[in-house]
Design brief:
With 122 residues, this protein is mostly beta strands. 11% of the residues lie in helices and 46% in strands. The strands form two sheets. Strands 1, 2, 3, 4, 5 and 6 form a six-stranded mixed β-sheet that branches. Strands 7-8 form a two-stranded antiparallel ribbon.
Length: 122
């Protein structure tokens, strides 16, 4: 599969919120998605259950209620609990901006890697 311009792939690990197990996943980073999107079959395989639904505007117009859950993610040895959206079973895993912010990371589009982000307080 090809990624959108400005995006790249990188490895992370995901698991249930309690961190009892992890699965390595190659995700698309650098997208404009707020939340990470993971295939529903992958989430079910690792034992993550949907916790709530939220309304999302779709790229082609209209909207859809999609299940969401908290998952444990591991990136470069660091772990955080973050929010993800249940995606299509055959969809590509996408790393969202919310997850990147939780880890203090940003997508470097030029070097095509995750880098430490500048954090700001107001």
């Amino acid at each position: 599969m090809t990624t959108q311009p400005g995006t790249f792939r990188c490895p992370i690990e995901i698991g249930p919120r309690d961190g009892s197990r992890f699965q390595r996943v190659i995700v698309v980073a650098g997208s404009e998605n707020i939340y990470s999107v993971l295939p529903s079959t992958l989430l079910e395989m690792i034992g993550v259950s949907a916790e709530w639904e939220s309304r999302f505007t779709l790229p082609g117009g209209g909207w859809e209620m999609l299940p969401m859950a908290e998952v444990r993610m591991r990136i470069d040895g660091q772990e955080r609990t973050t929010i993800c959206v249940y995606g299509k079973s055959d969809g590509e895993p996408i790393l969202g901006r919310h997850t990147l912010a939780a880890f203090g990371l940003a997508a470097d589009h030029v070097e095509q890697k995750l880098v430490q982000a500048d954090m700001f307080l107001s």
